[in-house]
Specification:
mainly beta; five-stranded antiparallel sheet; 2 helices; 7 strands; globular
Length: 119
């Protein structure tokens, strides 16, 4: 009988005999996210595969106008586009950073998308 590896010890068996990890796989947010301000009352953050566009979505009890003021003060280089359907859209010149602030019944939803700048 083979000795279990650390990977084996960190998985559970499915009924069909395949193995699943007992802990979710996590990916650290790209370093560029450290430069983006998140308001104090943010409630949710999700980061996806490090090789694709990184996305962070959260809800805030702050109004869209309050959040727009926060992001414009914290990131003055971001360009403000005309609002569409009450959604505020900020982006970097190279479009590698995009922030969308949408009204929500209890405040606002903030979507932050970061991609690698095109070379």
């Amino acid at each position: 009988m083979a000795t279990p590896t650390s990977q084996d010890q960190d998985t559970n068996s499915r009924s069909n005999g395949s193995r699943i990890p007992s802990h979710p796989s996590t990916v650290k947010c790209p370093a560029v996210f450290e430069q983006i301000t998140i308001v104090d009352n943010a409630k949710l953050c999700q980061a996806f595969n490090k090789n694709s566009t990184a996305v962070m979505v959260y809800h805030s009890s702050s109004s869209p106008s309050e959040l727009l003021a926060v992001y414009r003060a914290a990131h003055p280089s971001l360009h403000l586009h005309p609002a569409i359907n009450d959604r505020n859209f900020l982006s970097s010149n190279d479009k590698s950073t995009r922030i969308i602030i949408s009204p929500d019944s209890n405040g606002s939803q903030i979507d932050i998308l970061v991609t690698s700048p095109q070379k």
